[in-house]
Structure formats: structure tokens, C-alpha cells
Design brief:
The complex is a heterodimer of chains A (314) and B (454). Chain A contains three helices and 14 strands. A twelve-stranded antiparallel beta barrel of chain A has the order 1-2-3-4-5-6-7-8-9-12-13-14. Chain A has one domain: Porin. Chain A is globular, with a radius of gyration of 19 Å. By secondary structure, chain A is mainly beta. Chain B folds into three domains: 148 residues, Cupredoxins -  blue copper proteins (Immunoglobulin-like, Sandwich), CATH 2.60.40; 148 residues, Cupredoxins -  blue copper proteins (Immunoglobulin-like), CATH 2.60.40; 132 residues, Immunoglobulin-like, CATH 2.60.40. Chain B has four helices and 33 strands. Chain B has a six-stranded mixed β-sheet with strand order 11-10-13-18-15-16, with no helix packed on it. In chain B, a hairpin with a 2-residue loop joins strand 2 and strand 3. Chain B is globular, with a radius of gyration of 21 Å. The termini of chain B are far apart. The relative contact order of chain B is 0.13. Classes of the chains: A mainly beta (314), B mainly beta (454). At the A-B interface, strand 6 of A face strand 10 and strand 11 of B.
Chain lengths: 314, 454
């Protein structure tokens, strides 16, 4: 329990020690600390998905959970909101993430993340007023490797209907998919992601305590991993929100990794609420632990398409 | 529970009272005489359907409240007892009453404490279909104020009522079980689980029974706290004769009615298409939430039929006379009013403003008795607003940047988003006069102002 508490409060400490940690991680990598290197090689797209239309803003703070990023896939970096895409609507999103400072070596046959450009196409179709189905195409572009297909995931999601009148938004997402071994040794993975969010005045809070399981790959016997995501944002104006997103991978449930082997990332983000049909998110993230890509720039551009033929009476 | 206001003219006579003046009656006199109208405010349970039981507050234990009939100019003594746990007030919507009893604390009417009673008398005017309702604050509690069952019909009989109809039916449209939800506009708005006509969901009220060849006069009230409603009667049309209780210059036959919150429509339906029909909300999701009732012809049976309209059709202009050159002129003082809102976060409702200020900080324009005023209402917001002027009737002069028009008298006008509407009224009823959006959540968020007489 004490360890868990410490892990939740240490991001502040980690950030404060950023220069030191950066040096230390370099040292570890140079000396071939295998555990740390392995942590880089996992495919673990931490994601936080705000509502399908950009609505709330993010403010940070949850410095409360820390975990050393052992591996940050950085294909879809998004904290999920509880809303689902309405029926007869298709949400098309493009996630563009560039790792400015990441792993520079090939480890276990996995390409380094440094200077990788990831483009992820996400298609989400609304099923009804409480369910949606998402599909991902992950790609990567990197000098020397060109544009590569990385893998695909499928993601059904349900939420508590509005008629339940819950004080918070509640949703449950599950995701299963494949990724090539040169991008992740764990080629088949499964994730279940509870989603809790709430809007209060100008503030927005979202918490995604995700659990992950490797179905095929070196970590197949590792059990469930805990990868929380948090978003806190603030509405500066009706159209501009800003805040923080936090992503982590603490390692296996019941036996969290040592702090420096966990993934920790904090993004300063902004959401532009220009139209109910558009979603625009931009952020810069720091990974203060040795196992995390240290500097990432991310962007999300989404457009909602309404297939329904509606008359005024609808 | 009253679903049909078929009070006879004889019954009207019994309700019409004795009364004194338009003033509060001292308490010691009470016990000596019975009031003409007695309203008891108390909690009750509305059974909209067997599966939808709603705890609310109502007048005389029924939703909607009783149909009150009064004779124009004939004094009425009203006694109101507040058996609820909150301070209450009764607004006599559409009447020309003194501020002290009009029923708005912003005008100076006193609230009625829980357990207390008040008695006063007045001479009802003008004639027509009015209503009475609570005028309190709800805030985030979507069971209070206009979200509750505190509303009822008030018919002020003209001295020379033509009465050209065979049957008279009163219908109240209302929405229940509201909760705030983020909308596509990015703001929190009330949405509702249950919608009713006369307190019942479609299929759970006794059918309104008619005979072939009748002229049925329907008095429809939208008592919803926030929602505009569209109403159609399958197989029939409406011949609109009055809006907000005032006869229209040009009666029109229309396929459907539109009523903003607090608006009333009086329309004659000719029962010339025998069968069993649905009278219901045109929009599917609201009718499926319960807003509908059944009209059943004598001798007809079977499943109620509904014909789904594909468009929403309504405009005020069709009921008004066009402006003519010779009618123009006269001294009219313009009062410019700009409506907008201030962003309060996507998790909040907006703060509503008139000329950049929210009540109680809004301006109090001074009116001179006998002067005619034109309110130029520029709605710069993204929402439509049903604007209501207390204690006066206004004439609609222009809507949606169209040409001038005349003769359409109302007390509520829906001003669509991003449009300008103009109304005129004669300042002939001194006293503080409230002007506000009749959407309860907008009122509660500052969308009010008071006119005062110099």
C-alpha cells in the first residue's frame, strides 16, 4: 500500500528531478540495463480520449499517479471521456505523434522510437446511444524504415445511458489487436479500460484505470498490467481549453515495477472547441522516467460525420 | 386529476365571485367569507403512467391545476394556502394586475411562507385564455418552480363571449424528470425523461371523446419549464383563433401548432374524420417520451392512428395584418434590448444577459404612463427565447427581420436565435413590471429585467 501511495505522488518529484533523471536514463541505456531496455520495447498505446466533440478542457494535476513508463507506444495518446459517438455517426480521427527524444537503439529486434512519426487512423461508429465500435490502423514513419504498417486494433465500448442519471460519466472500453513484432514484442494484446469523467463548471476530469494483458509475446505470463490515464482541463473560453494529461504503465497488478522501470508521461494539452463536429487536440509530453520516451509532440484531428437522414420531426 | 376542462357556463357562474378590490384582504375578515377561488399548494404524486410516478408539488392535488373561470371585470377573491415546504408565489399570467399581487417577487409581490396563507381580490382583465403558475427559483433542482406541477388554466370570460363551439378542451403540455446534459452547443441544458399532456403519457389517459360534426375548441398551454413543443392531430387540422388568449386578426387553418414555454393557442378542430387518432408532439422522440393523447370519435374503436409530419411549420406572421402606410406613425419610444450570454464553462449553464447585464444587475428602464414603447429585442445568442412581459399585452410588430405587421397581441413571443423581434405596448398599468425569458433555467441564470413607471 505504501508503495502504491508513493507511486501516486512521485510524478511531482520526478518532474522536479527531470534533468537528473534524464542523465540517469542515458547512463542506464548506455550500460545496457536490460530491464530498462525491455521496457522501451513494449507496445502500449496509452490513450486518453476526450469526448467525441471537443468540449472540455484539461487542466492538470493529477500528479497523483506515477509509474515508470516501461514502454510507450505512442500511437494513440488520448484519455477517454465517457461519451460515445451517437448512433448513425462516424467519428474519423487522425492521431499524429512525433517522438522528439526517445529510445535510440534497436532492442530485441524492436525499432528505436527516437524520431518516429506515428500516424494512427481511428474510425468510431456509433451503434446506439450507449455503445460504439472503434477500429485503428497504426502506422510509423522513420528514417531508414520508411512508412510502415504497425498493426490494427478493434475497440467496442459501452457507457451508462443518460437515463441512469449518474453523477459521473461512466464507460467501459475493451480493445484487442495485433502489432508487428518490430514495433512490439507482444504482438497480440488485450485491454479493458473503465472510464470515469465529470464536468464541473469550467473543469473537466477524466480517469482511465486501464488493465492490459498480453495474449501473445514475451509478457504473456505477466498477468494484468495497470496503465492509468488521467486528464484534467479547464475552460479558458468557450472555444479554448487547456490542461494536462497523465499516462502511466505501472507494470503487473500486485507487483508493480520499480519506479524507474515504470512509464510516466505528462502532457500539457489544449483542446479547441470550434464546432460540435470537430475535435482538435494538441499537446507536448515529457517522460521523466528512464523507461519513457522523454519528449513527444502529439496532435489529434477528428471530424464527426452524421449518416442519419433526419427530418425536422426527428 | 382533471384532464378535460369541460366546466360549464353554469359552473363558471358559481366560480365567479363576490370580491372586493384588487388588494390584499386583512386576515380577520377571512373567516367571515369563503373565497371565490381557493388554491392549496401541496406535494402530490403524479402518475404519468403506472411506471412513471413523479413526486411533485401541485395546486389542489392535481396536475394540471384546476380550470379557473372568471368573468372579465367581476371581482374575485382568491385564497392561496402554501402547504409545501418552500416559499411560494402564484403568478396570474396574462392579467393586468397590480404589482403587489401579480405574482413575481421582483415586482414586489410577497412570497407565501410554508404553512402560510394569503387572500386578495382582483378584477380579472383582459378576457381570454390565461393561466396561473409558480414564479420561484429552481436553480439546479429540476423538480422545483416551473419544473413542478404548479400550473393551471385560467379562462377569463369576455362580457360578450360568442362561444361558437360544441366542446371546449384544455390541454397542458409539460416535461418532467429533467436533468442537465451537455448538448451539441457545448453547454449544459435540461433534458427530460417524461413528457405529458394534462399530466399523462400517451396511452395512459382516458381518450378525449368527440362526436362527428362537432366544433371542438382546444385551449393548449405549453407549461413546460424550458421546451418548445409542436402539436399535431392526425387526420385533422387546427383553425387558430387566438394566441395567448387574444383573438388573432387573421384566423388561419394550420396542420400543427407550435408553442414556446408559456404560450397558449386556442384553436377550433372540426371533427370531420371519424376514427381514433393521436394528438401528439410532432417530434418523434418527445412523443415517445409520452407527449400525446388519444382523440376518440363516438362509435369508433381500434388502435389510435398517427400520421408523422416530416417538417415543422409555423410562423406568427400568418395571423397578423400587414402594416399599411396610413397606420404607421405615432410617437413610440424605442427601447433596445440585446440578449446574449456569458460563458461559464462547459459544465455550467450560461449566464444570461440583457444589454450586457444579468438580473439583479440589469437596467430598470423608466416608463411614462400613457406612452407607447417599442421593445427591439436583438437575440445575439445561440438559443431561442420565449420573452414574456408581465401585466401588459404587447403587439407583435416585426419578427425575424420581416416587414412590419399589426394586430397580433400576445404576452409571450419566441425570439429565435440570431434574430431581432420588435413588439409594442402601451404603458397603461403603473407598477413594477417584470420582463424575462420564460425558460426557467434562463430566468434563474439572470435573464430578467424590471420596467418601472416614472
Amino acid at each position: 500500500m505504501l508503495r502504491a501511495v508513493l507511486q501516486f505522488i512521485c510524478p511531482v518529484w520526478l518532474l522536479a528531478r527531470w534533468p537528473f533523471l534524464k542523465e540517469k536514463s542515458t547512463y542506464h541505456l548506455a550500460s545496457g540495463v536490460q530491464q530498462l531496455e525491455n521496457s522501451y520495447s513494449h507496445f502500449n498505446p496509452a490513450r486518453i480520449r476526450s469526448c467525441f466533440y471537443p468540449r472540455l478542457l484539461v487542466l492538470l494535476c493529477f500528479l497523483g499517479m506515477a509509474k515508470v513508463a516501461a514502454a510507450q507506444g505512442n500511437y494513440e495518446i488520448q484519455v477517454y471521456g465517457a461519451d460515445t459517438v451517437p448512433p448513425k455517426n462516424l467519428m474519423v480521427e487522425l492521431h499524429s505523434n512525433y517522438t522528439v527524444t526517445g529510445q535510440t537503439k534497436v532492442i530485441d529486434g524492436v525499432y528505436p522510437t527516437n524520431h518516429q512519426e506515428h500516424e494512427t487512423l481511428e474510425l468510431t461508429q456509433g451503434i446506439n446511444d450507449w455503445a460504439e465500435l472503434g477500429f485503428y490502423v497504426f502506422t510509423s514513419e522513420q528514417h531508414g524504415h520508411g512508412v510502415q504498417w504497425v498493426g490494427d486494433h478493434i475497440r467496442p465500448r459501452v457507457r451508462a445511458p443518460d437515463r441512469w442519471h449518474l453523477p459521473v460519466g461512466l464507460s467501459l472500453s475493451t480493445e484487442i489487436g495485433y502489432q508487428r513484432a518490430v514495433y512490439s514484442p507482444d504482438t497480440w494484446t488485450w485491454e479493458i479500460r473503465p472510464i470515469i469523467d465529470r464536468t464541473s463548471g469550467r473543469w473537466y476530469f477524466a480517469f482511465n484505470p486501464a488493465l492490459e494483458r498480453t495474449l501473445h509475446g514475451p509478457d504473456v505470463n505477466q498477468g494484468l498490467g495497470f496503465s492509468p490515464g488521467v486528464k484534467v482541463s479547464y475552460d479558458f473560453t468557450a472555444k479554448i481549453s487547456g490542461g494536462f494529461e497523465y499516462y502511466a504503465d505501472y507494470g503487473r497488478l500486485g507487483a508493480f515495477d520499480a519506479l524507474h522501470d515504470q512509464q510516466q508521461q505528462i502532457f500539457a494539452v489544449t483542446d479547441l472547441n470550434l464546432s460540435p463536429k470537430w475535435e482538435i487536440n494538441f499537446g507536448v509530453g515529457l517522460g521523466p522516467t528512464a523507461a519513457t520516451d522523454h519528449l513527444i509532440i502529439k496532435g489529434i484531428l477528428g471530424r464527426r460525420f452524421d449518416w442519419g437522414k433526419k427530418s425536422a420531426a426527428d | 386529476m382533471i384532464n378535460r376542462g369541460l366546466i360549464s357556463r353554469r359552473r363558471f357562474g358559481a366560480l365567479s365571485g363576490l370580491a372586493a378590490s384588487s388588494a390584499l384582504v386583512p386576515a380577520p375578515i377571512w373567516s367571515a367569507t369563503a373565497p371565490d377561488v381557493s388554491l392549496q399548494i401541496a406535494p402530490c404524486t403524479l402518475e404519468a403512467s403506472p411506471k412513471h410516478r413523479i413526486r411533485t408539488v401541485a395546486y389542489n392535488g392535481q396536475v394540471p391545476g384546476p380550470v379557473l373561470r372568471m368573468r372579465q371585470g367581476q371581482e374575485q377573491t382568491v385564497e392561496i394556502r402554501n402547504g409545501s415546504s418552500d416559499p411560494e408565489i402564484v403568478h396570474w399570467h396574462g392579467l393586468f394586475l397590480p404589482s403587489e399581487i401579480d405574482g413575481a417577487m421582483e415586482e414586489g409581490t410577497l412570497m407565501i411562507d410554508p404553512g402560510a396563507s394569503v387572500r386578495y381580490s382582483f378584477k380579472p382583465d383582459p378576457p381570454g385564455f390565461r393561466w396561473f403558475h409558480t414564479h420561484t427559483f429552481a436553480g439546479k433542482d429540476l423538480t422545483k418552480a416551473q419544473f413542478s406541477g404548479l400550473h393551471g388554466f385560467l379562462m377569463i370570460e369576455s362580457r360578450d363571449n360568442p362561444g361558437s363551439y360544441d366542446q371546449e378542451i384544455f390541454l397542458a403540455l409539460h416535461d418532467w424528470s429533467g436533468h442537465f446534459e451537455g448538448g451539441d452547443d457545448g453547454y449544459m441544458n435540461p433534458v427530460y425523461d417524461v413528457s405529458t399532456i394534462n399530466g399523462k403519457m400517451l396511452g395512459f389517459a382516458e381518450p378525449l371523446r368527440v362526436k362527428q360534426g362537432e366544433r371542438v375548441l382546444m385551449h393548449v398551454l405549453n407549461s413546460s419549464p424550458t421546451e418548445v413543443h409542436w402539436l399535431a392531430l392526425a387526420g385533422h387540422s387546427f383553425h387558430v383563433v387566438a394566441l395567448d388568449g387574444n383573438e388573432v386578426p387573421k384566423p388561419q387553418t394550420v396542420p400543427m401548432l407550435r408553442l414556446a414555454p408559456a404560450e397558449r393557442v386556442s384553436a377550433v378542430v372540426e371533427t370531420n374524420n371519424p376514427g381514433v387518432w393521436v394528438l401528439g408532439e410532432v417530434r418523434k422522440h418527445i412523443q415517445s417520451a409520452g407527449m400525446g393523447t388519444v382523440i376518440e370519435y363516438a362509435g369508433a374503436s381500434g388502435k389510435p392512428a398517427w400520421t408523422q409530419p416530416e417538417s415543422l411549420i409555423w410562423n406568427y406572421r400568418q395571423f397578423a395584418e400587414p402594416e399599411t402606410t396610413e397606420e404607421a406613425g405615432g410617437e413610440v419610444t424605442r427601447i433596445e434590448l440585446v440578449f446574449d450570454s456569458k460563458f461559464q464553462g462547459h459544465g455550467n449553464e450560461e449566464l444570461w444577459r440583457i444589454n450586457g447585464k444579468s438580473y439583479p444587475h440589469t437596467d430598470e428602464p423608466s416608463l411614462r404612463e400613457g406612452q407607447r414603447y417599442r421593445l427591439v429585442m436583438k437575440n445575439q445568442s445561440m438559443d431561442d427565447h420565449p420573452m414574456h412581459l408581465h401585466r401588459h399585452t404587447f403587439e407583435v410588430r416585426r419578427v425575424d427581420a420581416g416587414p412590419e405587421m399589426r394586430g397580433l397581441r400576445k404576452d409571450v413571443l419566441l425570439v429565435p436565435a440570431k434574430t431581432t423581434a420588435e413588439v409594442e405596448f402601451l404603458a397603461n398599468n403603473p407598477g413594477r413590471t417584470l420582463f424575462h425569458c420564460h425558460q426557467q433555467d434562463h430566468m434563474d441564470r439572470g435573464f430578467m429585467m424590471v420596467f418601472r413607471y416614472a
